[in-house]
Structures are given as structure tokens and as C-alpha cells.
Amino acid sequence: MNPLCPAARLRLNMNAFSPAGIDMLKVLALIAMMVDHASTLFLTQPLPELYALGRMAFPLFALVWALNVNRNPDRYQHQASRLWMWAVLTQPLFAWAFAGHYPWYALNILFVFAGVTQLLALSHRYGPAGLCAGMILLLLLIWPLTPASYGVTGLILVTALALTQLQLPAVLRIMAMTVSACALICLNGVSHLLTQPAAALLFAILPTVLLPVMAGYAVRALPGSRFMPRHFFYYAYVGHLALYALIAGVI
Questions:
Q1: Are 76 and 69 in contact (CB under 8 A)?
Q2: Residue pLDDT, tens place only, 149-158
Q3: For a 10 Å CB count at each end of the chain, is N or C smaller?
Q4: CA-based angle 38:141:33, to the nearest 5?
């Protein structure tokens, strides 16, 4: 591939994070997610500033996932199985913590990453037939993911980000990045643009786009090796949901 073509530059830029930089992205995403969840669960009137900060979490998690998932395609199924396991184990705590905020069938965000990783695994192993099976799986996930985990827009964003990291022709990778950008813009607040344009732009759409980009550029130059324990995100995700559910039960 021509190293000067836009798609090649894109892939190199997205892989320019050091292990410490990737871990810092996880830390920033975890902080944003925990602040956003605390605002939703514990404040009678959630602060729009905290909501805006929380818009950074999912795009950063999606970026970190995309940077890691394609490192070894032969491990797609292993990664998918691990994500399914954690998603299922986390679901009771998620439902407990957000009871009254989301309907009973709403799935947690790990199902987004599990579903797309399963799509990659099926496609890698079975070709076009596996791709079709994976797409059917994602279609089945749209409804339960919509209330709390971004639904079809989130699935599109995560899938497109994964495609930007594959060895695809330049045109396809540019298309994947374009779809990623469009999904990111549409991830939050678009449905309120007509009724509350200023609030939707200021507290939803712009933070969703700008905060992850700013965070990415801020940590790109961070040198060093990993400083977070392996699989720390899973324990932090489960742990904060359990803690928040207990606190919500007390207050």
C-alpha cells in the first residue's frame, strides 16, 4: 500500500498510541463513564456539564477496542467469548443499578463490543456466510441496545472503527472512516436538534465529537508501557455498577 495515501496515514496515526497512551485513554473513558452514571443515578436534576463529559466515554472505549481487536484475527472468537461472558455477568448489576431509568430489556454496553467482535470472528472463519450470520446477530441486538447503549448508531460506529484497522483497500478504509465520523456525530443529541438545537449541540453533539478527539491528541505523545492491570476495565465496570446500585438502594 502506498504509505502516502490517506488511508495509510490514517491507520498509522490510529496506531501511534503507546501502550501507556492506550491505558490513559481507558482511564479517561472510565472517569467520564463513572461521572456520567453518578449524575444519572444520584442527582435529582442531572447536570448538563456532567452529561457532556460523559459523552466522551463510549467513543474512547470504541477507539481502544478498535486498536486492539484486530491485532490477531485468529483470536477473534476468544475475544468475543470473553466479551459475551462479561456482558452476561454484568447485566444483572446493570439492570439493578439502572432500574427505573431504563426498561428491563435494556442491555449494557459490553454487548455492543461482544456483538461486533462476534461478527468479525464469524466473518474471519466462515467468509460471506459468517458475515451474514454476524449481521443477523447485530440486527437482533439493535432493539435491546437502543435504550441504554446507543443502538444501531453505536453498532455502526464500532464496526466502522474496526474496519479502519484492517488491511483493506484505501477506498474502503476511507469509507469506513467516513462512516465512523458520521456515526460519531449522530451518536448523541441529533433527535433533539429541532426542538432544542442549542442544548443538543453544546451538551451532546459537540462533546461527543470534540472531547474524544482532544483526549486522543493529548495522550498520543505519552511514552511508556502499560500501567493498568490486564482486563482492569471489566472489573472496574462491574465494580462501579455494584457500588452505584448499593448506593442508589441506600439513598
A1: yes
A2: 999 999 999 9
A3: C
A4: 20
Q: Which residues contact 6 (CB under 8 A, 6 or more apart)?
A: 170, 174
pTM: 0.92
Neighbouring-strand partners of residue 102:
99
| Total Cβ atoms within 10 A of residue 161 | 25
**Alpha helices in the chain, H assignment, sequence order:** 6-14, 19-42, 48-54, 57-69, 76-97, 110-126, 128-145, 151-164, 170-186, 197-200, 206-219, 232-250
- Please give the span between the terminal C-alpha atoms of the chain, in angstroms, as a whole number: 58
The half-sphere exposure of 140 on its side-chain side, counting CA atoms within 13 A, is: 9
| C-alpha of 114 from chain center | 11
d(CA 212, CA 55): 9
Task: Check residue 99 and report its DSSP letter.
Answer: B
Q: What is the pLDDT of residues 65-101, one digit of tens each?
A: 999 999 899 999 999 999 999 999 999 999 999 999 9
β-partners of residue 99 are 102
Q: Which of 93, 95, 111 lies closest to 103, judged by CA?
A: 95
Q: What is the DSSP string of 101-154?
A: TB-TTPPPTHHHHHHHHHHHHHHHHHTHHHHHHHHHHHHHHHHHHTTTS-HHHH
Q: How many angstroms from the chain centroid is the CA of residue 220? A: 19
Q: Which value, in Å, is the radius of gyration of the alpha carbons in the chain?
A: 18
Strand ranges, E, within 29-85: none
3-state secondary structure of 169: coil
